[in-house]
Amino acid sequence: GASECYLASDGAVKCRNCPAGFSGDRCDKCAPGYTLSAKTGGRDCEPVGRVRSDRIDFVDSPKGLPSDPYAAQRLQQQQNARRRHRRRRYRVTSARRFHRL
Questions:
Q1: Is pLDDT above 70 for 13?
Q2: What pTM did the predictor assign?
Q3: Beta strand residue intervals within 1-77, DSSP E
Q4: Spatial separation of the C-alpha atoms in residues 38 and 9, rounded to whole Å
Q5: φ, ψ of residue 74 in degrees (nearest 5)
Q6: How far apart are CA 98 and CA 30, in angstroms?
Q7: pLDDT (tens digit, 9 = 90+) per residue, 50-96?
Q8: pLDDT of residue 36
Q9: d(CA 72, CA 96)
Q10: Where are the domains of the chain?
Q11: Considering only CA atoms, which of 1, 50, 45, 53 is closest in space to residue 23?
Q12: How many Å apart are CA 7 and CA 71, to the nearest integer?
């Protein structure tokens, strides 16, 4: 369902009835048991665990990470950084020597 947002007495926008997997004053954070989706570039929250056709098996944290909504995204960024570090570029000069760029 859609969330209902309103202007609170302090002037801030607040929402209630957040869609499944979302929480926060504006439904902009992942709820406990959910993490940012790597498939959609971190725009959606997906359950931490295994999704089956009839149920979701939640786990405390993915691969031993602390249970916070950004843990999976940070792990993905760290893995990407390691891959970039390993991929070194070289150029070949006319003397057939390799020079690191």
A1: yes
A2: 0.46
A3: 4-7, 13-16, 22-23, 29-30, 34-36, 45-47, 49-51, 56-58
A4: 36
A5: -65, -40
A6: 48
A7: 667 777 666 655 554 445 556 666 666 776 676 665 555 555 555 55
A8: 82
A9: 43
A10: 4-91
A11: 45
A12: 31
